[in-house]
Structure formats: structure tokens, C-alpha cells
Amino acid sequence: GSGRRRTVVAAAAMALATGAALLLWDRGRMSQAAAPDADEGREIVHALLQGVYRALEYRDEEAAYHALEQVVHGPLLQRLFLEHRQALAMEHLGGAVARVRRLDLTEVQSLAPLPREAAAAPGFAGEAGWTLEAVLSHWGHEHRRRLHYQAGFEIVAIDRQWRLTGLSWQWEAGP
Hints:
alpha+beta; 4 strands
């Protein structure tokens, strides 16, 4: 039935997210004293952001949480999941539903290793800018939007996978 299909889809998405995170771990291996170079940092940030937006498209809370925990860790995981639950509640009340069609990373800069005292595991911080092309659906019609975001981030290696542990919005803008 639809429950089994949802489980299979969720398992496939988690396998993809885990595979991408492990691949990027191998490419971006580092010590506590170094941040990845610009290209590696860009790949890691892009893969993690894509994983976050994919996870947030799940309507099933359990599938969304499991997919999200493949790319996010710590208090940020709980914060993003709770925001997702609120969005689902609004959807059930007839609110708009957003679907991300494309994510373009426009910049990754200021890459720096996390200070030893601030991180229990190797990691790095920086700033990223990205653009989302999304479709918002409500009341039987759709609106296409192009949204721009700028945020500071922290990424830590946990269980041999890169995971977002911090995300601080600096600005967001729509059309």
C-alpha cells in the first residue's frame, strides 16, 4: 500500500543522503586544524543543503526526521524538524505547500576550522548564499518563486559524515 511505498521512498532518500555524506567525507577529510579548500567546502555545503530541503519535502513526520538526521545534528535538527511540523500543520489548515525545484549555491566563503574548544569533532564554519526555485501551491493554484538566502553555518564530522550543526540566517529575500 501507500505506507510501504512511503517507507521504500524514505529508505532510498536516506541511502542517497548517507552515500553523499560519506563520499564528501572521503573527499573532504580533515584534521581539527584545517578547513576544506573552497571547492570541497562548496561541495559539502551544497550536498547538505540539498539533503535538508529533500528531507523537508516529506509529508510523513518519521520519514522527514530520519532523512533530516542524515544531514543535520544537535539542536539544529530539533529546530528544523519542529519548523517542518508547524509547516505541515499549516498545510492541513489549507496553507501553502512549497516544493523546491532547484537549489543553486551562489557562494561559500570565510571557511575556517572550528576552534578545538567549540567542537567535539573536526568541523568548519563559514558563510553561504543560495537561491531556491520553488513552487508554492494553495487553494488549487501555484506560484513560482525565486528565493535568496544568506546564512552562517557550522559543519561537523559525526560518525564519519558531515552534518550541519549550526545555521544562522543573515537575510532572505523573495521576488
